[in-house]
Amino acid sequence: MTTKKIVSHHIVDPEVVMPGSKYLANRYIALAAIANGETVLRNLPQNDDIEAALDAVGKLGATVRHLSEKEVSIRGIREYKQQGTVKLNCRDSGTLSRFVTALASNLESETVIDASKQMRQRPMAEVAQSLRDLGVEVSGNNLPIKLKGPLRGGTISLDTSRSSQYLSALLIASLKAKSDTRIKLVGKTVSSSYVELTKEAIKKFGGRVEDISSSELLVKGEQYLSAPNIDVAGDVVSSSYFMVAALLGKTSVTIRGFDFNSPQGESLFYGILSKMGAEVECQAGTLKVSYTGSLRGTEVDMGNMPDVVPTLVVLALFVEGITHITNIAHLAFKESNRIVDLCEQLNKLGAEITYSKDSITVTGGQNLQATTLSSCHDHRLAMSFALIGIRIPGIVIEDAQAVEKSFPLYWDYLEKIGIEVADVNSQLIGVQNGG
Ligand SMILES: O=C(O)C1=C[C@@H](OP(=O)(O)O)[C@@H](O)[C@H](O)C1
Ligand SMILES: C=C(OP(=O)(O)O)C(=O)O
């Protein structure tokens, strides 16, 4: 386990360029794996989730070749049948677990899909049941799951009230089903902007998803898919940490190559910051966020911005007044319970935070004490908690290697913008805490 301490900072108007989006990369890798021919992906992020995704599609029969550090070529699966049972490990990736389970259903051979202990706890039943309804033999409702296709197509009812990833997974996999797939949505789709991201990615490969109504979609089977070259745009969620770092450091940040056209809800995070009093300038691919002297709390529905909730909660600790975040019940099913774990950790600082099943309320401006916080093995908690050190030097983050999931170079990026990060010997912390 790695432990990091935020020692001090001297952030002055930094400029940053984000690595490629893991969200887009996950979609392009899945689609390239079932495309007809070869796809070259450029500016691919290097992280644990993406390594696991490339490994998984390779095992399913796609040909993966690394052309350079950030460039990979994927030739789509030609034979939808493997010799013997294929075993896949999705590590900590929820997106991959859902996407690859659906994709593997196109194979007529057997696949066993497993993941980390943490991922085994996250829900999969909705995907498993839908695949059964589409003709796939599926054992189990949580990982590890064993399945044997093919995906025949048909009509299903899908509950998307815990995760949009189920729908994204089925939309992608159904493009290669033996016949048409009709998906009737039950319950309110959470994180719906991610479904738009999926539809856009499918379009890039020439695929089609038809919206029959707001709660029914149709995907024609055996579609021809092709996208020879794709540049992966910058990660909008990763950029949130640098915006908040600048505001806490009472300075500005310039983010080059920001993906303003992204349908992903989190791409509008800067709008919340502007409402809180930050100055925001958007200009031809460049986003600049500046501190203007004061920030105030806000009321915001973050149903479509799940992954930047921890970033906003950390900022809210240091602004005037109350920040009330609503519509986030689905955060309970992430790498950690991002309502309970996030708030319980921050309460250790002496923060005034309350939470309910679907909301978080933070009263800013409290007197906070530096202490040790656990990331709960959640990369987003680790990255957000580190920012607290800008205002309260001495914050220690345990299980800091969780960042490898999406942003292994995070600590280096912080150093580059002027935040001093130290490695801590965990035995020493035990002594300091009397442990
Ligand atoms: O489709 C995706 O890439 C994702 C969808 C969201 O999940 P939910 O739909 O489960 O909220 C998001 O939180 C996750 O990090 C990635
Ligand atoms: C929730 C996340 O990812 P996943 O669901 O793919 O594990 C995330 O990146 O914050």
TrEMBL record:
Phosphoenolpyruvate binds at residues 22, 94, 122, 165, 338, 380, 405. Keywords: Amino-acid biosynthesis, Aromatic amino acid biosynthesis, Cytoplasm, Transferase. Pathway: Metabolic intermediate biosynthesis; chorismate biosynthesis; chorismate from D-erythrose 4-phosphate and phosphoenolpyruvate: step 6/7. The active site is at 307 (proton acceptor). It is an enzyme of class 2 (transferase). Transmembrane segments: none annotated. GO terms for molecular function: 3-phosphoshikimate 1-carboxyvinyltransferase activity. It is found in: Cytoplasm. GO terms for biological process: amino acid biosynthetic process; aromatic amino acid family biosynthetic process; chorismate biosynthetic process. Belongs to the EPSP synthase family. Catalyzes the transfer of the enolpyruvyl moiety of phosphoenolpyruvate (PEP) to the 5-hydroxyl of shikimate-3-phosphate (S3P) to produce enolpyruvyl shikimate-3-phosphate and inorganic phosphate. HAMAP family: EPSP_synth. This is 3-phosphoshikimate 1-carboxyvinyltransferase.
